[in-house]
Amino acid sequence: MKKMILQLLLVLSLGTYLCASDGIKENKNQEYKSKSVSELFGSLYESTGLNAFLSPKEGEVSHGVVVSTFNQSGGRLIMMAICFALFYLAIAKGFEPLLLIPIAFGGFLANIPIADIAGPEGFLGILFNMGVSTGLFPLLIFMGVGAMTDFGPLLANPKTALLGGAAQFGIFGTIVGAAFLSQYTGFIDFSLKEAAAIGIIGGADGPTSIFVASRLAPDLLGAIAVAAYSYMALVPIIQPPIMRALTTKEERQIKMEQLREVSKLEKILFPITVMVLCVLLLPDATPLVGALAFGNFVKESGVAKRLSETMENSLINIVTIFLGLSVGSKLASEKFLVPETLGIIVLGLVAFAMGTAGGVIMAKIMNKFSKHKVNPLIGSAGVSAVPMAARVSNKEGMKENPSNMLLMHAMGPNVAGVIGSAVAAGILLSIFK
Amino acid sequence: MKKMILQLLLVLSLGTYLCASDGIKENKNQEYKSKSVSELFGSLYESTGLNAFLSPKEGEVSHGVVVSTFNQSGGRLIMMAICFALFYLAIAKGFEPLLLIPIAFGGFLANIPIADIAGPEGFLGILFNMGVSTGLFPLLIFMGVGAMTDFGPLLANPKTALLGGAAQFGIFGTIVGAAFLSQYTGFIDFSLKEAAAIGIIGGADGPTSIFVASRLAPDLLGAIAVAAYSYMALVPIIQPPIMRALTTKEERQIKMEQLREVSKLEKILFPITVMVLCVLLLPDATPLVGALAFGNFVKESGVAKRLSETMENSLINIVTIFLGLSVGSKLASEKFLVPETLGIIVLGLVAFAMGTAGGVIMAKIMNKFSKHKVNPLIGSAGVSAVPMAARVSNKEGMKENPSNMLLMHAMGPNVAGVIGSAVAAGILLSIFK
Amino acid sequence: MKKMILQLLLVLSLGTYLCASDGIKENKNQEYKSKSVSELFGSLYESTGLNAFLSPKEGEVSHGVVVSTFNQSGGRLIMMAICFALFYLAIAKGFEPLLLIPIAFGGFLANIPIADIAGPEGFLGILFNMGVSTGLFPLLIFMGVGAMTDFGPLLANPKTALLGGAAQFGIFGTIVGAAFLSQYTGFIDFSLKEAAAIGIIGGADGPTSIFVASRLAPDLLGAIAVAAYSYMALVPIIQPPIMRALTTKEERQIKMEQLREVSKLEKILFPITVMVLCVLLLPDATPLVGALAFGNFVKESGVAKRLSETMENSLINIVTIFLGLSVGSKLASEKFLVPETLGIIVLGLVAFAMGTAGGVIMAKIMNKFSKHKVNPLIGSAGVSAVPMAARVSNKEGMKENPSNMLLMHAMGPNVAGVIGSAVAAGILLSIFK
Amino acid sequence: MEINLIAESVKFLILGMSTVFMFLVLMVFVLELQSKIIMKFFPPKKEEDSTACNSTSELSRNGNLAVVAAIAASLKSYKQSK
Amino acid sequence: MEINLIAESVKFLILGMSTVFMFLVLMVFVLELQSKIIMKFFPPKKEEDSTACNSTSELSRNGNLAVVAAIAASLKSYKQSK
Amino acid sequence: MEINLIAESVKFLILGMSTVFMFLVLMVFVLELQSKIIMKFFPPKKEEDSTACNSTSELSRNGNLAVVAAIAASLKSYKQSK
Ligand code: NA
Ligand code: NA
Ligand code: NA
Predict the structure, then answer these.
(1) Contact criterion met (CB below 8 Å) for A137 and A288
(2) Looking at the domain assignment, is residue D69 inside a domain?
(3) What does the alpha-carbon distance between residue A152 and residue A264 come to, in Å, rounded to a whole number?
(4) pLDDT tens column, A153-181
(5) Domain encompassing residue F14
(6) Whole-structure pTM value
(7) What residues have a C-beta under 5 A from ligand 2, the ion?
């Protein structure tokens, strides 16, 4: 082996000898200015985070915008504390860890002074421009979601889709709420576009929220995404009181007929049918619905397992990492620590509550007009937050009657809610086009 | 947990209070023009697909070009019908589903009015520019193909490579055919570049066809890719009649000697040897041949299993999804519904037929000059369409003599056909450079 | 099936008929100039690699720079021979095949005349610009490394981290060596930036070296990466003589106490702790340390297995392929066959030797001041080269006393060396910002 | 011109909810129609055998054929020993 | 101005090594402190059961439950035959 | 200048087919030479043991060692019971 290396060196020497004439000595260090050791330590200290926190500079530019001195020091520390709190919630409490961990880590990185990791040349900024600005990442996630979702329960009982429609009241009601806040509070001022982006939190669907927010209100993206995922994780706490308040004990005990079996052909045709409707009525929703339908179609076709398995495994995992980190880059203090964030957090909760109520009330209305009774507890599953909300419906149902399994019935409105939110997203995008 | 959230809100309130002075109220809705409810419904109706199909507008721009009113309405519907037909063929008939499903879905998305999904800002357009315009996707697929291909049968009997050479007659003969159509029909007019891109269909190799077409005739890419994959799926129907017409019963019964074992070292050296020849004779083919050789070299080296397994699994799957969707974006009606497409479909069939004939006749010629007889049925495998064409050879052979297994013998010309087509692609790219 | 295809053709005919009026015949071949057959063969010969090697042209531009006639012919052949030598070392000798095979193949492709595969429009050039210029690829690799690394042994005995610090003497000592060569030899002339990029070879960490070199001295990237990975593979040959020379038999026989168990919480907190320190002291190191910490945090959190498994499998494998090929593109003769390369090869060896010595001597110093004795053989593991250097420590220890297992003790400085190099990288990047 | 945010957003509410419902009602209608057509013209066949097949194919997809073979062999040798 | 490369690089050496050590010494200090705090306030529970679980969960993650079932069945039938 | 498309394309046919054949004939020649050299100077060793190994290594790559262990155990306990 040593001989081999010697030979390699020999060959190299030969090569270098032959072209040594190219190596004209010149002063290559013109940019560099000599410094004494103490100057070096001094300028190293100036580039520490400690110094950046302790002596923020007026007019400092970070991520392409001027950052106030508060946001350079205390603001960043508050943001880091918030990211640590998100880590805690994700790990110890199990809050949507697959997305909150990357988002919070991205947020932590974005608040590091000097490094400018979320700036246009930092790696978070590059990921953001590559996949979030273009809308690519949320759509790829949606493909994977499509490849993982079984629309069977919806096909077995299509009318439960209406519950998934009513739950979209969370979206549009929240827009009104945001407008209200802007009109009547002194310090929060959302534009209509921003209000719409906030409302979409009520869709309880991460990729939809991110897709819409990246188009209508990119600066609020971080807060919207964090709110959406946090409240999705909080669904087991937010929904039950509302569900119980709006239903009677008898209603909660309604038993539903067993779902019929759904044929393979129906499942294959479903994504195409939804797409056709979407093309005819609302082309602006077709990127989102199309991605979902593509994933589901590949899965149900059954002839391209390689692709559907990739979509629901390596592809969605890779994109989740990139998307989470990119979204986190919008948690930089100068973007997050604005009064609007407080509004977003309050409105996000309102959105989930209204969506839940919408679904439950719709179920009660349907029961007035139909002899096939629907247990109103499955109405709350219409907000999406798949499959958490459906599990909550099931759990609440079993509290009243341990033998009443609502899970599969709740999956119908649950997946319909995904489609409903994508349609709502299409409407909002269409309004502001 | 509630306490935690309250604290979080508290921290936020503090933060927002501290910088509340930033929130100066201003009119953020300047772009937005108020509309009445009926106006809103009206403009929503105007942005439905229904309206777009029913009242196409003169001068409408889609995907960056002006689209005729026919292509805005009936044209798009025809294309969608074609995409559905492709779905049917892929799922029910098993026509190359791994690529035809993504291509046809991409085609369906590309023909949705208003959404402009295949435009430069739509996600299909972004994928196309990222991976097809740059040539990256077909090369990555070729890496995976290399990592999946065993060149052993070719190494065991190298002279069968000549069959894979003769089958390239499909490529060059078709170029003459395309020129013929352009010269003598009134409504089809291919340039020489386009004729070359069409000819490459005869290579019976998806990535090669896409790579060449994306360079020589990007507007024909959709039709070329669909033709290439469709005819590859039709190989079991197209080839047998030609094979039987050109051979006698005795020829079809020729038994070939068993293949010798090939050593690991030969397999490792093979990709390097091919590369060296390619560098010396035809550097323009080195991107394609290089990608194939890289995948194969990593596989045969046996010391980087992680990488070769990734190339033949997650990487090729992810790229297949992206490539299929991107290629489908060229099935937009304004690009596909041109007289040239009809020519491409006819010529593609001609290309496969000529390639098949070329391979079979070459085998018969070789038998005239060699005492080691070759069963001419394996000649047809020279068109590539790996491994379908080799299976067809095997099946036809077994029809004459059930004990005559030709599969491994046919794999030699089959994989040689891949190299032959890549070389032919290099020649065409070199001519038009 | 035939019927179906006929129908498809019919539909197409209809479509094409309807818009046939679009097809106005025009001369589409204006660019093309007719050539006779012999002219065609002539120009084909001119575009062969044979011709390019035999008759290099003055002023030929490749990869965006003018290439000397030597580098067009003999230079490229020498480079190809070097790449083949690297193949041999990777396959037959097991030298870091996961990276050296892609790098050497990339180098081979980059030296192909005419094809310009490493140029801005070639696929290697595209990959390079996408992932190496932006710094994305080495960071993604580092995420994967983080997800694969167990920092337990370091946490069990934190003071061994100092050994990983002392080994960074390899980096800074080599910078001095590079400056020395520039000052006192006639034909090697490194700028300070280049000296720093070369020094980082002593970090014995591939991604760190590539990240720093792509920022400080992109033209030297190929030589630096090849040197880094080659010497990492040579660690079992380079280190033992130095280790034995600097230690006594008694020292080599020191037995260390068994490592205590480390709790899950410590492991989860570790990446966060390192990040906080890094933010406070050296934000310029946070991209590298952050990527490593992210991967490790996701792994140790235990709640996002999907993501950590993706990072340490498909994602790192895909990126390794791309990174290797991209880095190889800098092995083009005009970039590699310069006198500086010889300097890099010599200095790289010096760097590893100094790092090894630094670690061993530090261990001896620590033993002077502490009653918990450290076996100085684990000091050499501080250079990183995970886990090879730790295995070397173990093997040398067992030579003296077959019952003395040092592996786990050596893993502490080994992983600390990764952090140490990332910190050193941050310092260098900070100096030249 | 100052825009009344609340008025506008209430309009969005009306537009949005009615469009979402229109979409979903139409979808429910089409799905039920489609289901009836499929049940009538393409009734699903019994697929018990295919599911049995499926679990085997799932094993083989994971490349565990060797394991399956080992189990089979172990069972077989056990049976022979009886 | 001509720069003395060696002088500069020696300065880098001093700056670099002292910063690297400062960082790592601080890290060692914080890690030891942290370890003590964790040991005191969050002592790790015995995790024997969880590790036993783990190896099973690892199997199931690979989707090999069918294999495990087969083995279990084969063992069971063996035991019954005794 | 009007170009005769057919004449041009026939030229391409001649150029293309002859180049493809030249390439492949040369390849056949080199491969046969190479094969002879390899057979003479680097004859392949018997690799039976290595293939046996391989199938095991394939199993272990899939992380199925636990399964293998279980099978081994089941076989062993079976043998002991004889
Ligand atoms: Na929803
Ligand atoms: Na071919
Ligand atoms: Na290191």
Answers:
(1) no
(2) yes
(3) 9
(4) 999 999 999 999 999 999 999 999 999 98
(5) 2-45+57-81
(6) 0.90
(7) B 203-205, 384, 417, 421
